[in-house]
Structure to design on (178 residues):
């Protein structure tokens, strides 16, 4: 008879909670004794890293070229808001820090999109012939690269579409009135 293998999570929430309680006590002791705040333990840092790495494999985050920046931002935000976690209010540090990392990912994606728009505007506004032609070249000479840039940079910024409310379809109801 086969025994079912217990589904193990990559971060054990109960151990993570205990580690957070211990770290909070260390911080309070340091505050009372006018000492510096203690360093984050390796276990807590490892949990942050595991959460950020696993969250980056979700379908909405997986294909970005700046995934390492997203993970770094997530870990940085976790360290920044580490003191805000209160074990008396919540017994789920995994969910708390997952949300922090999730929103750090969203902010990084927004920053990168802004940078892409700026880069496209700069390319569109620049003189392509100055980029491609060398001194002494004929200005009537057409370069495939400049033609490619002209064709691809003339597109305007995508406008944000307003979402229209979904309409309920009335099946058979309109036939009664017609």
């Amino acid at each position: 008879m086969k025994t079912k293998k217990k589904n193990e999570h990559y971060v054990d929430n109960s151990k993570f909670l205990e580690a957070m309680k211990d770290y909070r006590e260390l911080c309070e002791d340091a505050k009372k004794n006018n000492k510096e705040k203690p360093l984050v333990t390796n276990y807590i840092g490892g949990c942050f890293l595991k959460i950020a790495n696993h969250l980056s494999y979700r379908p909405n985050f997986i294909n970005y070229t700046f995934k390492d920046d997203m993970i770094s931002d997530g870990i940085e935000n976790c360290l920044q808001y580490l003191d805000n976690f209160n074990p008396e209010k919540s017994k789920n540090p995994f969910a708390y820090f997952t949300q922090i990392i999730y929103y750090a990912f969203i902010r990084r994606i927004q920053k990168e999109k802004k940078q892409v728009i700026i880069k496209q505007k700069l390319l569109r506004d620049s003189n392509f012939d100055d980029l491609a032609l060398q001194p002494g070249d004929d200005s009537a000479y057409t370069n495939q690269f400049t033609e490619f840039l002209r064709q691809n940079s003339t597109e305007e910024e995508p406008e944000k579409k307003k979402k229209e409310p979904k309409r309920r379809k009335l099946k058979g109801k309109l036939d009664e009135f017609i």
Q: What stands out?
A: The radius of gyration is 27 Å.
